[in-house]
Each structure stands twice: as structure tokens, then as C-alpha cells.
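User: I'm preparing a small set of examples for a lab meeting where we compare how different chains pack in three dimensions. I only have the primary sequence for this one, and I'd like the structure in C-alpha cell form so I can line it up with the others. Please keep the answer compact; I'll paste it straight into my notes.
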Amino acid sequence: MKLYLLIITIFLSGCSGYTHTIKERELTNYKGESHESINVLLSMDTYFDTTLYNPLEHIYSNLVQSKRFYSVSSGKVGAPYVVEIKFSSKDDSSASEIAGSILSAATLFIVPHNVTRTYQIEVKLFDEKSLIFQHTYSDTMKGANSVANLPIDGIKDSVDLLVFELLHDIENNKLIPLVKKT
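Assistant: Understood. Below is the C-alpha cell output for the 182-residue chain.
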């Protein structure tokens, strides 16, 4: 009986989710109006295995699904604003977390292990003439990985939060004007 309780406790401790340094908040200025069209140029600064999840596609999809822009294109010319976004990730795990990862791998990831990763997007916003905004958004994700708690959900949450921060700055700082209604 004690063995069953121990196994259940280990398994459930891997389901605890992730914490992020960026907190979710509401966009206050959005009233259904669209900003001018943007052209998005995406790149990745570090190697990232995109077999199961592609953060660049997720960033682009978030911008399109936000419905904050008249149109969102990728790699095309003609939009009055260009947004360059460079995604990067860094493993910030401590030595004890790395040792835990090795132990977890030895148990085929049944025993959860803690991870700490920092994800960031470096954003440059250009109008037709020049650079008008530059900022780096960063989120540190901490949590436990296991068979029951794969890191993809935590990465998606980080990317969502980073894109949300960009949208927040565009709206609050009025970086891209609204489309004029005719």
C-alpha cells in the first residue's frame, strides 16, 4: 500500500504545471479596431528542436489570431509596418536540476525533474522609413517535467505571454496607428 502511495505521489508531483515570470493581464485599449497591416519577419537565435513544436509558427499564429491588425503577412513587402522577431531560449537549470534530469531519464521520465528555462523574443518595429521601437521580452519558466507533464505546454504558455506583452506595448504606446474608417 505504501508503495502505491509513493508511486501516485511521484506521478502527481509531475503534474504541477509551470510558473512564469510574466503575469497574464488584460489588454485594456482593444475595442475591436484594427491596427495597420504588418509584415512579420521571424528568426530563431538558438537551436530549438521543432519536431513537436515550432515557436515561430506559434508566434505568427498568435499575431494573426489576435485580430489586432488589418492583415498579418510573412515575408511579403507592402505592409506599412515590419516587425522583426528573433526567438531564443536558454537552459537556466542549476546543477541539482541537471542531476535530477539524469535520474529522471534513468526512470524513463516517470520521476519528474525540475527545469528552469528562459525564453525571449527580441522585437524590432519599423515603419516605412526607420526603426521606431526595439525591445526584448523575456520569460523564465520553472516547473517539473515528466511523462505526465511535458514541457511543450509550458513553452507555449511562455510564447503566448511574450507575444501578449508585445501586443500590450503596441496598444499602450500607440506604436502602430489604427486603420482609418472610411
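A couple of notes for your slides: The radius of gyration is 20 Å. The longest strand covers residues 131-145.

User: Perfect, thanks.
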